[in-house]
Amino acid sequence: MARLGMKIAISGKGGVGKTMLASLLSTMLTQLGYSVLAIDADPNTTLAIALGFPHPERITPISEMGDLIEERTGARPGQTASYFKLNPRVDDIPEKYWVEHNGIKLMVTGRLKRGGSGCYCPENAFLEALLAHILLRRDEVVIIDMEAGVEHLGRATARGVDKMIIMVEPGKGSVETAYRIRELAKDIGLENIAVVANKIRSEQDSDFLISAMPDFEFLGFIPYDQSIIEAGLGNFPLINASPEVINQVQDIAARLSAVKSGVSRLSRDKKGGLDDGKDNFGK
Asked: Which of 102, 110, 123, 208 has the most Cβ atoms closer than 10 angstroms to its Cβ?
């Protein structure tokens, strides 16, 4: 039986570069022929812009589709309900609600609703069921752009994550957030955690992060790139990243492939793969 495609979750402090990494990894792997499903679970929902999707403002986050959530759970978001389905049907949702551009499939899920202790609601039940289906049942390579935490993942869903990447940049705030995210991830049984450093200007920046995070696995160090900063400020697609950034992200993709050791191919539509035999993302 074929293995499922690799599942990668990207988290980190706001503004550290999660969307940049998610978009470049999605683009590179798609160009290599892999079937990639990108998930925007960040409340800022800018992954469509970074990927160059036309009219990203027309994409409605699934968390805001009240009629759909009511149909599947039996309760309308925002309304008090004594009962609603905790395991709604979601297997048909990806094909119906993803959008596609340049071969990349994108779903914008939106954020989970926050509340007091023990708070649960139909939109949360629906989103969690959807992500569980995608991570545990789908055969695409899945890349999830998350907020600073693991709110979208539960113990069951975490089993489907092959690698949790925490993005960091030089600075104590980013490092502290990384430690907090790692503890939250471990609480739900997610142990395959690594770090990607971004906005590196000098060897001193790299040394600072390595010293501050001695027991983290570093997948790569992405140099500071003004064009990426300008793209983010202007809401432009990340099409002009420097060769140094592209090379680093390619190296990160190659290192990630080792996580699926013993698997011959990524989930993909045609032959092709990473160089040096590092082609282990899925079936």
From this structure: 123
